Amino acid sequence: MAMRRLVLGLIAALILPGCVAVKEPIGTSVGYVNDPALEGLWIGKPDEKKPAGYYHVILNDDHTMTVIGISPRAGDDKASWGVVELTTAVLGGHHYLNAREISESGGDPQTADDRAAFYPLLYTVKGDTLALFTFDPDKVKAAIKAGRIAGTITGNKLGPGSFDSVAITADGAHLDALLKAPDAPALFAPLMELHRGRQ
Predict the structure, then answer these.
(1) What pTM was computed for the model?
(2) Cα–Cα distance between 131 and 122 in angstroms, integer?
(3) Please, is 101 exposed, middle or buried when counting C-beta atoms within 10 Å of its C-beta (0-12, 13-18, 19+)?
(4) Contact at 8 Å (CB) between 97 and 88?
């Protein structure tokens, strides 16, 4: 679980209630090209009650990126590390990434679903700050109800405080078309910020 907290900003849907599932990754219609602005060391605190995590982004020749994350020991939680694969795409001037967990502390992701899952995020890089944004379930629900994108909304019967399950069922081309729109960032909510580490 320590690694789940560590990669919160990269694989948010693993632990965030009310997350939005997608059928295909963002960017399938335009292809993936590594963003050199992401290369290097980033430092951030997915959980304000825990020490900062350290994320080193490596650009690969096949236009994927490898993120190696380290979470220091904190109280009863052991130190842990993990590996995440990223792809990035630009749609309508907006920058998106897809994250997929590769390894957690040297082992495989916990389930087959974890191994296959990818998690889409919007991001911005301004100076030495990397801001990550995740789909806002309420905004996506409104877009589905308005017919802007195909999707499903399944009521959660777990009681007060529970969340609907929201899924975008459109294929990659239609998802990309939605996310090219000038107002596409309005479908996202702030998740966390990372700050560039200096050597």
Answers:
(1) 0.83
(2) 8
(3) buried
(4) yes
In the block, tokens 């702030």 appear at 190
Q: Does the pLDDT at position 22 exceed 70? A: yes
Which tokens go with 127? Answer: 């100076």
Q: Is 133 exposed, middle or buried (0-12, 13-18, 19+ CB in 10 A)?
A: buried
39-82: pLDDT as tens digits = 999 998 766 666 788 899 999 999 999 999 887 777 777 777 88
Which tens digits make up the pLDDT trace of 163-174? 678 889 999 999
What does the domain layout of the chain look like in residue ranges?
2-196
What is the Cα–Cα distance from 30 to 32, expressed in whole angstroms? 7
Question: Which class would CATH give 2-196?
Answer: mainly beta
How far are the Cα atoms of 8, 88, 154, 174 from residue 96, in angstroms, in the given order?
16, 6, 26, 15
